[in-house]
Amino acid sequence: MFEKVLIANRGEIALRVHRACKEMGIATVAVHSTADANAMHVQLADESVCIGPPQATKSYLHIPSIITAAEITGAQAIHPGYGFLSENARFADIVEKHGLVFIGPKADHIRLMGDKIAAKKAAADAGMPIVPGSDGGVETEDDAKKIAKKIGYPVLVKAAAGGGGRGMKVARTADDLSEAFSTARAEARAAFGDDSVYLEKYLERPRHIEIQIIADSHGAVAHLGERDCSLQRRHQKIWEEAPSPALNPDQRAEIGEITAKAIKKLGYLGVGTVEYLYENGKFYFIEMNTRLQVEHPVTEMITGVDLVREQIRIADGARLSFTQKDIKFHGCAIECRINAENPVTFAPSPGRIADYHAPGGLGVRLDSAIYAGYQIPPYYDSLIGKLIVHGRDRMESLMRLRRALDEMVVTGIDTTLPLFRRLAQEGDVANGDYHIHWLEQYLNAER
């Protein structure tokens, strides 16, 4: 097993990886920008290395600095967490070329799934159901109109190299398509340096269902059920739960088996998440994330599997510590992503935390790296913590979430806690009757 792992990230995910390493007897190296010198993971790690100024491009995204930090500290492997360089195939290649182990999938799979057009084709070839749409990239507006007429409006124009909702535009009519096509390409070019786009059928009220998979280097593949991530704002997930209130055990087993077989066919290694839209009893592949997901804790809560620990073991060449038959689903888990944002305008709210109290009790988990007096920098993602609750069933989990949200205190900055307190009381949410457009409609109605 590795003796020392460098954590190439910050915030709660860096702390999450640190904790897993310490429980495995592995020393940790924290890298940090000057803005994160007082971060919790930096204080707790066995060693720390400052890799640059606050700007992510000069620190957390600066590959030479990270590789140098690994070499001077004698780290044997690098865990990228999520975000930053976690899905950067070039980084994975460089890590391996320097004699280090990248705790993640093969660079080729990162590269494949990072191209949404290629990923869709690979998914179809591997046996996954896909959304009707173009066979590949769409070069001209005329071609887009021909494809849209064939699959039927409304359609979604999507950036091939997209993510985070950027480069995605809906066209409900042929007249809308001209603007959607040009706008999506412009956004894609600005955000990703690649203006390639493709078309998909736009589903009106789908749910966002994702399947957690894991595979070792010995040919074993397993799925750990699904997560429902349908409560989203601007295509960003804010509330996730497992299992989905929309699926029954037979549907869960079927899509899980389809996904696991496809992943095995692809020869994938490590953890990954296959994301689907689900509507009227049918699943449609949309993308695969070749990394640990922000929402991985809800899967851990209902399966008892430590996904980060398994990631590290697999990267070290070990076999999965379980088989598919060993996986049992227990109860329900819900996660709320708490951001340092105004709960109405969603404007970022960096600053110093005055008072902080974490909720506790049976079935309550808080993945966070904040503390009283901590200065939240303005340079990075606004996520400050993930509140996760687990109960014997969905109603117990929901009641526990309401209680935990009432207990949690963060002052000195704005947070989205008030929004989650409202959502936890909403009838549609309580009944599990929502879809990927529900939250936007709810927020628009409040304005």
Features:
447 residues; Dna Ligase, domain 1; 3 domains; 8-stranded antiparallel sheet; 5-stranded parallel sheet; alpha+beta
Description:
The protein is an alpha+beta fold. It has three domains: about 5-105, 3-Layer(aba) Sandwich (Rossmann fold), CATH 3.40.50; about 130-200, ATP-grasp fold, A domain (Dna Ligase, domain 1); about 205-445, D-amino Acid Aminotransferase, Chain A, domain 1 (2-Layer Sandwich). About 35% of the residues lie in helices and about 25% in strands. It has 15 helices and 20 strands. It has helices spanning about 10-25, 40-45, 65-75, 90-95, 105-115, 115-125, 140-150, 175-190, 250-265, 295-305, 305-315, 395-405, 415-425, 425-430, 440-445; strands at about 5, 25-35, 45-50, 75-80, 100, 155-165, 165-170, 195-200, 205-215, 220-235, 235-240, 270-280, 280-290, 330-340, 350, 355, 365-370, 375, 385-390, 410. Helix 4 packs antiparallel against helix 5 (about 105-115) and helix 7 packs across helix 8 (about 175-190). The longest helix is centred in the middle third of the chain and has 19 residues, at about 175-190.
